[in-house]
Amino acid sequence: MSLPNETFYPVGSLDQFMKQVGRVIDLNGVEIAVFQTSDGNVFAIKNESPHPKGGPLAEGMVSGHYLYDPLHDWKIDLETGNVQAPDHGQVQVYPVKIEDGQVWVATSEFLTV
């Protein structure tokens, strides 16, 4: 889904994103965790846990299209950013596209890269 004012930025080649391992990218001070799942899909979320105590998400474990928060073990849907019950919350997700082996992440935030 694309939003008005959304701009895609190149963040690396697909082979730079290991399957089931998060990689942090920085788009003008915004830390984004990018994950390639075992089925080859790529997802991008803000690298910030929605847990009240916060923490990074890039080091979490990926299973299917879910991420397990490394500090709080919350299960987060990588497609929607929704935290799964019994916990609740949501992580900012960013649209991703892959063109010619290049991974692009979109944001509507003002960025200069």
From TrEMBL:
CDD domains: Rieske_NirD_small_Bacillus (cd03530)
Keywords from the UniProt entry: 2Fe-2S, Iron, Iron-sulfur, Metal-binding, Nitrate assimilation, Oxidoreductase
PROSITE patterns reported for this sequence: NIRD, RIESKE
InterPro entries xref list: Rieske-like_NirD, Rieske_2Fe-2S, Rieske_2Fe-2S_sf
Domain of life: Bacteria
Keyword Hydrolase attached: no
GO molecular-function term, one example from the UniProt record: oxidoreductase activity, acting on paired donors, with incorporation or reduction of molecular oxygen
Pfam family, one: Rieske_2
Domain Rieske: 8-105
Swiss-Prot/TrEMBL GO biological process terms: nitrate assimilation
Name of this chain's protein: Nitrite reductase small subunit NirD
Organism of this sequence: Paenibacillus anaericanus
Gene of this entry: nirD
